[in-house]
Structures are given as C-alpha cells and as structure tokens.
Design goal:
The chain has a three-stranded antiparallel beta sheet. Strands 3-5 form a two-stranded antiparallel sheet. The chain is an alpha+beta fold. It has two helices and five strands, in the order ααβββββ. The chain has one domain. The chain binds zinc ion. Zinc ion (ZN) binds next to loops.
C-alpha cells in the first residue's frame, strides 16, 4: 500500500466519524429542543388553564429554543393584552420568565413610576396581539 492510498483511507475514516458526531449532536439538540418546548408548553397550559402557579418557569432561552418566543400578558386593570417578544428582551437568557411579569407595564394605565400589575397569560409561537400600548420591560432601564 502506498503512502498516498493510506492517507485516503485515513481521511475517509475521519470524515466518517465527523459525520457521526454531527448526526449525534443534531439528535441531541433536537431532543433538547423538544424538552424545552414541552416545558414551555406545560407552563403555558398551567398559566392559561389554571392561572398558575407561575413558578417554576422555563427560562427565556428555553422558550426561544422550544419555538415559543412570545409571552402574552394582560393588564389587571384595563384587561388589555399584549404579546412581548422574548428575543428582544435584554435580560440574561437564563432568566426564568416569571421574573418578566414585574417589569412589564401597561402604557395606558401607567402613571409616572407606578402601574397596575400585569398577569402572564401564555406563551405563543407567533405574535398574537400588537404590543403598541405596552411599555417594553427594557424601556425604563
Ligand atoms: Zn391597562
């Protein structure tokens, strides 16, 4: 066997293990994504169907990874609802989403620094309601 053909054989083996590692990694990522989605959906069903408890909650990263990137909230006073985009919230990705409730405020009910509390309704995959009336959690930082 010449040096040349040994390199070819060796190269083929390395390529084979690369493909295997890549496939295994993709399988693992898919499993994590499914687990994240399941956790986010479970939280969403608990909130919408039973009104909580809000804790424990999935993290921002888990919701985004699971494909549920919108948090729907409702103002306790005027009952206006809004969808907040989780990918635009500048918080650490490992922040549990129940922490976002305290920082979300309804723009039409807000007076100075005080605002009535909001209630988290559910997570959605797409924007359900236009958030124009709402103060984004980041706007007041
Ligand atoms: Zn309101």
């Amino acid at each position: 066997m010449s040096t040349k053909s040994r390199e070819v054989v060796q190269g083929g083996r390395i390529m084979g293990t690369d493909i295997h590692a890549k496939a295994a990694r993709e399988t693992a990522q898919k499993a994590i994504r499914e687990a994240d989605r399941a956790e986010a959906e479970q939280w969403s069903v608990r909130m919408e169907g039973y009104g909580g408890p809000a804790q424990p909650a999935p993290t921002i990263a888990q919701c985004l990874n699971g494909g549920l990137g919108w948090l729907e909230v409702e103002c306790n006073r005027c009952k206006t609802r809004a969808s907040l985009p989780l990918d635009a919230i500048r918080r650490p990705q490992d922040t549990p989403i129940w922490k976002l409730e305290a920082s979300s405020k309804c723009r039409s009910c807000k007076k100075g620094r005080s605002a009535p509390p909001v209630r988290m309704i559910k997570l959605t995959a797409v924007r359900a309601i236009t958030p124009y009336k709402w103060v984004h959690p980041d706007e007041e930082r």
